């Protein structure tokens, strides 16, 4: 058809742009964006932590870490002196050193408590800020929560918003809180070692450099790949269980418990297989780390024993050199020993970057082809040669509905239009296009600003903390205002007067009401939304299919009366 022929050129470029976006998913950029959200951007009250508090917590954590390192260096010096005092039979010097060690231990404990408290507060605040920013992307003007489900490439958004952000923040703060302490220890203990034996320093640095190179080349990429695979399978298992909970009644009617068990067990087996792959590389890494660390414990004795036998160092210097060597070795191998956590961070950051870049990728890969404009003349809705293209997860590949010429009609104030036809011809899809949920297709749409949509499947939101919510909350969803008297009158208008006394009753209304009652409840919500609306356009997608013909006629009669009073219009999809 003409519409399809005219879009071939941009479809090819759309696929190329999408591939470029997928290649542009860089975990480092995602971490920089999260840090920017936490420490640089001003925020609203919802995040419960401003950027100055974030800087204070980070500074407090770093200061406590530096103090711990200072106390460690001091403790090492005092311990070495005490052992020299034992060798020379200096009792007073020995007991003085023990008292100093006790004081240092207490100061170290205080610094550790402060460091851990600041780190935990920072984790809570950062996770709140990062999750809030991700939720803004998810529920923003682009309707990413709907488009992700439609597209299917960004799977398990719930797992990314909760688990992935939590793990990234947890591991990143844990790594960051150790860096100031390690830096201070490194310079303080390296100075001590250099004064005792320059040869020991050179051997240590060479050994640590070798371990870092071997770890990076042999383990980093494979650990990250298997961690990513494990997270993907685990997220799918979690989604499957959530889906079972959502559709429990339908599964029970089908008596499909065993079938669902087989599907869940299959996902569990895939998870076990992925975990075995990750375990193989993790075990290999741990074995390498163990051998590498044990060999490192031999190096100080190989260096200090000949020096002690020659009388060039005291016995206490051996203890200091052993402690300093072990600590500096751990610092130099810090990155290598944390590669499992770093691999997990990189894998989860990649998933979060896919999430964050999705709205931009969608807009670039799927250029809107339908023309959307404001109201034209008196008509509340005008369609000119509109043809709908069903969005696809494959960029630039769409399934077209309807005939080549498209659909043209106009709806005037006070008017109503019924869309009828065989299932699958595109009636509901046309309503999605008019409501702005879909934007692919051909033709022009001129629509008034006030549009209300009622789907066939009623949506009854859960409460803030549990699945239960009050009937009042259901009627006022999402942001309507009405008195209890008005709500009771609305319930009576849709033949739900028996619920008028339960406005404050909290329960899971999604399971407490029948299918017809749920449709009438959301119809009452629509009537509440119409209060005060000026010239609204109402779109109904078989919104009364579960109601009897008697109730359906009464609902439509009530709705048309209110639309006539408000100067509105109705477009409805139905089979009767």
Question: How is this structure best described in words?
Answer:
- The protein is α/β, with parallel strands linked by helices and 576 residues long.
- It contains 19 helices and 11 strands.
- The protein has helices spanning 2-5, 8-23, 27-39, 51-87, 91-138, 144-151, 157-196, 198-246, 248-254, 257-309, 315-332, 334-337, 339-365, 427-435, 471-476, 484-493, 509-512, 515-530, 549-566, and strands at residues 371-373, 381-390, 399-400, 407-411, 416-419, 441-447, 451-454, 469-470, 506-507, 537-541, 569-573.
- Strands 1, 2, 3, 4 and 6 form a 5-stranded mixed sheet that branches.
- Strand 10, helix 19 and strand 11 form a beta-alpha-beta unit.
- Helix 5 (91-138) runs antiparallel to helix 7.
- The longest helix has 53 residues, at 257-309.
- It is elongated.
- The two termini are 32 Å apart.
Structural topology:
Elements: H1 2-5, H2 8-23, H3 27-39, H4 51-87, H5 91-138, H6 144-151, H7 157-196, H8 198-246, H9 248-254, H10 257-309, H11 315-332, H12 334-337, H13 339-365, E1 371-373, E2 381-390, E3 399-400, E4 407-411, E5 416-419, H14 427-435, E6 441-447, E7 451-454, E8 469-470, H15 471-476, H16 484-493, E9 506-507, H17 509-512, H18 515-530, E10 537-541, H19 549-566, E11 569-573
Parallel strand pairs: 1-6, 5-11, 7-10, 10-11
Antiparallel strand pairs: 2-3, 2-4, 2-6, 8-9
